[in-house]
């Protein structure tokens, strides 16, 4: 069996437009570097059939490894048979020779469509080749709804003697056997693949302006990594007891407060990859994973009504995964259902019978029917859903010994995903009788509500007055109902119907809220003690927005989703139109506008969000989210959507707009998680508290954006104005609360923080400044400090550093790893991001069109900046690899100023200052700054000492103050 030894990063830069060469951080071993590159089509013997469908028919051979250097197109060795039959096992064997001998990493680029591969080395026994964690799988066909994928697999580390060897790749499946091999590599130095670029043993040096390319393998989790923040996570998850709501915050049962920096996570399929993935996430500060959806992972229930059970293999894998997450200090959120499917043979359940006339008109889904959107309309659907949830939560995980209802690591249960009866689907369908029996049930319930509310037609006529429609009566089961497109912000097109529409919104809201309350009671009834949320969805018309939020307020916390950016296809990166806006133009817009749905006395979470590539400014999102959302606004849980890999991808991972495993996202997570868990950013006061009675939110229009009598922020104004400008987001928290008996709406004096002439807003905490005129945010807390945005050509003075930036767009974060004020920190991590693009990717001039998507590897623009550290002198400045391990590469440094740029081909740096003990040992003044008199004494003693170099080794910095800019030489020689 191979040793699953992971490798360190190799970073490369473009040498010419058509090729890239590998750049290594770590010095090579005593043996010469060797990389053996074996084309899939250069087999010694094979029973693969080279089916023409896999060879031609639109296959992009320009994305395959060329067998002849300089060729534009490559080839692969493929096998394909349809379900009509053919051999179920085929083998391709290869001869190769290694010159050096020793330890070699084995990588293979193949079609991962089927997990049906095994391999043999030197005629040994065949071992399963796990393709479930394939790096950067992409499709060789457009459109990409196809089976002809390609991606790299890390096989393992093998000891090979110098001389000839063989390897064989076996593909064994049922009658639909298909797969293919592009290329293989055996490498004895630190290398990881990207695209079809062979390993290079002698790469050229990079220049200051060179974009560098990423070639990353699985993480070896070195103890020397400075970005590994897993020690900040509680282990095991749940050690403080169940999660609870404490007012607007989260805390555990023992009183420990907590914030969650999480992801929407995809379960790995093998235990080895589950452990690798959980450790990878924990290393980067992820302490929460949302399982979305649990129903998708576990599938439908099996068995007759009195003997329901889950698929044993699926739930065993699920149980093991959650136990591994728990071991690593990672909590879990269950997103239980999305488009819940009622199976035909489960239509009759313990909860009761689903009427045939309802079941038969539901849309088909798999082997059953989809009840999306109308759960709160039909109690029988709720009972069927509860049967599933109840069985799951009472299931005992054999790896933890706890039922899920008793599992404190199951911190949050989300009842259903993106499901509200107020949304376009289903409300429009119900209005338009797309499913007549469901529409009839809605109208029956509407009539019941009207009768209970008004009791007689006379009372109804008095209430609705001129808004009465033909047929309106407390006894009519077929009264007119509204669609989502009727629920406009200003109310109905006929203003006379305002009261009627308000009542309809109230009827729907009460029905939905009652459904949530019932679910909450059921969960508490079986003993679940964690946090419960309803859903994350919104109303289809703004007149119902406040009412919809009121229904969510029946639960323990408020959840929302939002997305920004993207391109021609919602979930895939393809050539075409690009949404290339930036959040920095105006605070509180884009994804950040969900701040306006924070309920005043409830925790606030976002279980899905991302700034989707090929948007070029996506590096801005995670810092803005952490510093403003989790910091200033006090949000309680963040879930970047979505995580599905065990290490960073070497291109745009999977060409997905949602991928986490790319430098702009997970690469910034360690610095951001460190700031969040150590409370570097303070929560601000409420800048806008919007408080309304229940009658005010059921008036038929959107009360949060309209003038209305009797409310408002300023008690001196008889008619209040609840319009809250988006820019208030940069000042402090924006909240809402809907209940009777509340205090009046209130706000801070925004003018104290907002210079609308110069377009600069300072947060109420004094730690953040948003210059939306220049599109730059600066973070100037005592500890974590940062510059985010279009900062090129500017100089920025922060409490611990000053930075002159050349690169147009940056996210530049300074993290004191010893958790001291940055100006005093002796160990500082710099996280430096700019733009990225794949090799060959091409945008038009304004970035609104992606002309070519390119392919692996991912090219990263270097941050070019001159950074001067305040406080004590610097001891060292080193380039750090993508795994967070400092290299031996010194960064250019003069005094306390360092220059970072493309020469270092990285986005991490470590800067160390001399400690107080260092200064005391050198008889300095404790500040690390030597005045001119001290310099004269110290320098003379040093220069008079044995072996002293010339005096010009230690010039002053040009500012009249002599920095001990190289105490490694100066002080150490002097002390000697």
User: Helix- and strand-based class?
Assistant: alpha+beta
Spatial gap, N to C terminus: 53 Å
> Any idea how many domains?
6
Number of strands: 59
- Estimated helix fraction: 10-25%
Sheet with the most strands, sense and barrel status: 10 strands, antiparallel
Uncertain spans? 1-29, 706-722, 924-976
Give the helix tally: 17
CATH topology name of the largest domain, in short, is TIM Barrel
Shape: globular
Give the neighbour order of strands across the main sheet: 39-40-41-42-43-46-47-57-53-54
Average pLDDT, all residues: 89
The CATH class of the largest domain, by name, is: Alpha Beta
The CATH architecture classification of the largest domain is Alpha-Beta Barrel
State which percent range the strand residues make up: 25-35%
Query: What's the Cα radius of gyration?
Result: 31 Å
- The CATH superfamily of the largest domain turns out to be Glycosidases
Written overview of the protein:
The chain has 17 helices and 59 strands. By secondary structure, the chain is an alpha+beta fold. It folds into 6 domains: 29-188, Galactose-binding domain-like (Jelly Rolls, Sandwich), CATH 2.60.120; 260-343 and 370-417 and 511-677, Alpha-Beta Barrel (TIM Barrel); 425-503, no CATH class; 686-755, no CATH class; 760-918; 929-975, no CATH class. The protein has a 10-stranded antiparallel beta sheet with strand order 39-40-41-42-43-46-47-57-53-54, with helices on one face. An 8-stranded parallel beta sheet has the order 28-27-19-18-17-33-32-29. Strands 3, 5, 7, 10, 11 and 13 form a 6-stranded antiparallel beta sheet that branches.
